[in-house]
Design a protein that fits this description.
The complex is a heterodimer of chains A (about 230) and B (about 90). Chain A has about 230 residues and is an all-alpha fold. Chain A is built from 9 helices and no strands. Classes of the chains: A mainly alpha (about 230), B mainly alpha (about 90).
Chain lengths: ~230, ~90
Amino acid sequence: MTPRTAAAGVLSLGVTAALGWAVLARTLPPENLPERVAAAMPDSGVTHPITAVLLNFRSYDTLLEIAVLLLAVVVALALREAQPDQPEAMGLDNPLLRAVMAWLLPLILIVAGFLLWAGSYQPGGAFQAGAVLAAAGVLLRLAGVRTAWLDNPILMRAGLALGLLTFLAIGLLVMIPGVPFLTYPVEYAGTLILAIEFTLTLSIGLTLISLFRLTPPYADDPDDTRSPGAPRE
Amino acid sequence: MPWLDLLLGLTLVVTGGLALGAQDLFRAVIMFIVFGLLMALAWVRLQAPDIALAEAAIGAGLTGVLLLDTLGYLRRPFGSRTDHPGTEE
């Protein structure tokens, strides 16, 4: 065992011990958070407690999360532009995938829409719907379907920013009657949450798609006979 | 079903270890995807279906696709990536 390994082991054990101690020696007074959420549910505009916490009670956290996602994709875009090779049509030459896509795509869109809508009363919501949407984008790219609107930089960037901008705009607009940032009026809360979630779904989907599309394209080399699972020298 | 939960937990640790320790990157990625799917199951068992959905969609699905895509990029023919001196095989 090298000294470095030993040091890393000691450090890991120390962190584990500290975490264990932190869990066991909690000094916070026990608070029944589920009960408090349940008590506030009628004012939230939705009936699913998770969505109520994410989009209403703690919507500030979600806002910052979306900002972090946007930041990540901006950095990825900047890194991609520094790459010499330009995006090109990439796809597997697979007629079966193309044929299946014609059936899968509407299904995926319906599932994404359902997850978004279901978020107000059962598990679901913007993140899950956005991920399903992104899966459609990934499949489209794998099938080599041309998506000109995704290559339009202005549209793409507008779509990426749409979720955060809508979230911010709604958060600011509700301040007009003199309440704090992101405090939705009870009677409109459901509508506002749905509007935010709809734009978030689009932006999250586009974010994940563009992260995938940003990897530099490569041509499959016919001389490369290694199978995908073959160990590398 | 405590024995099932125990099995699930053990499998999580094993797949996590295999993903980290695999010499072959392709195997590591596949193990990571398996880990993500089992993790989603674990969240379901912990009665957190929201996190399970997100884990299955983002953790296993999209991250797996991204990793596989990166793997394909790393395996490009040697001559066509002279612009990346640090990635020789």
